[in-house]
Specification:
Bound molecules: NADPH dihydro-nicotinamide-adenine-dinucleotide phosphate
Radius of gyration: 19 Å
Distance between the termini: 47 Å
Strand order of the largest sheet: 1-11-8-7-5-6
Order of helices and strands: EHEHEHEHHHEHEHEEEEEH
Strand content: 15-25%
Number of strands: 11
Number of helices: 9
Oligomer: single chain
């Protein structure tokens, strides 16, 4: 039996359609959600991500500003730009594409963004708000995973949820969101003992490891829901997930790579930007 493929591309198109409709209604009230995207340096993967974010803004009817800064930009110059965008009435959301060059502190950049405009939800204020369960913005990749679970009628309540990976942008917030939805959550990482055994207990298994084909069929319970967050460039030049495609024969539901969790991430960024515009206008 092959798992149901959880189609992130289709859901993404559907959500963007509803954002566009909501944006049209906001525009009638004189509000256009605006996103500023900052890119420092010329990392090719970052350039693709930024281009896709601009494209998504256009699709959702947003106003967008792009700042492509040279790799030699100083931290102070970057913080000055952020301070200016914090004050800009056209800009509801600010995003600085990570990673930034090594001479700039990622934490300083994140901390400089006004938490009300922090649509990536990386600012410590927003991280804290996620922890206590009172938040406007949800980190985009975990938010996309939750939207996919909802779309396919999968309720984490009471289920054994295992998240492999504990990064600040994926693993940790993913675990918190599942916990808020009453999942029984286990977080695994590189020091976890008997990882395969822990994974086999999962009703919902989320892989955010960054290693191609890391989750193999022997690590998956029959009928589990398997979410593959991984984006790994393989030796064949193609994009591969963290989950071995053979897991399709064991799982009940699974996200493909590409076309599963990936497309949802930018769509959730658009959702956060819309939310930011609404909150900033008291809506
Ligand atoms: P990080 O490298 O920041 O984190 C990887 C995590 O995996 C770490 O917590 C690490 O553990 C853990 N890990 C690494 N090796 C092992 C191992 N052998 N056994 C168990 N755990 C291990 O990655 P990210 O969280 O940023 O990203 C994860 C994947 O998701 C990547 O492929 C990335 O490209 C993709 N991604 C996809 C996005 C999307 O839009 N869909 C967005 C963001 C990321 P430890 O902490 O102990 O080192």
């Amino acid at each position: 039996m092959s798992a149901v493929r959880m189609d992130g591309k289709a859901l993404s198109a559907k959500v963007r359609g509803s954002i566009l409709a909501e944006t049209a209604a906001l525009k009638q009230r004189g509000i256009t959600p605006g996103l500023a995207v900052i890119l420092v340096g010329d990392d090719p993967a970052s350039q693709i991500y930024v281009r896709n974010k601009e494209k998504a803004c256009a699709e959702c009817g947003f106003y967008s500003e792009k700042y492509a800064l040279p790799a030699e930009t100083t931290q102070q110059e970057l913080l000055d730009l952020i301070a200016q965008l914090n004050e800009s009435p056209q800009i509801a959301g600010i995003l600085c594409q990570m990673p930034v060059p090594a001479h700039i502190s990622e934490q300083a950049v994140i901390a400089a963004i006004d938490p009300r405009k922090d649509v990536d939800a990386f600012h410590p204020v927003n991280v804290g708000r996620i922890m206590v369960g009172d938040f406007d913005f949800v980190p985009c990749t975990p938010a996309g995973v939750m939207a996919l679970l909802d779309e396919y009628g999968i309720d984490p309540k009471g289920k054994s949820c295992v998240v492999v990976g504990r990064s600040n942008i994926v693993g940790k917030p993913m675990a918190m969101l599942l916990l808020h939805r009453h999942g029984t959550v286990t977080i695994c990482h590189s020091r976890t003992q008997d990882l395969a055994e822990v994974c086999r207990r999962a009703d919902i298994l989320v892989a955010a490891v960054g290693r191609q084909g890391f989750i193999t069929p022997d690590m998956v319970k029959d009928g589990a829901v398997v979410i593959d967050v991984g984006i790994n460039r393989g030796a064949d030049g193609k994009v591969h997930g963290d989950v071995d495609p053979a897991v399709m024969d064991k799982a009940a539901f699974m996200t493909p790579v590409p076309g599963g969790a990936g497309p949802m991430t930018i769509t959730m960024l658009m959702k956060n930007t819309l939310k930011a515009a609404k909150v900033q206008h008291g809506l």
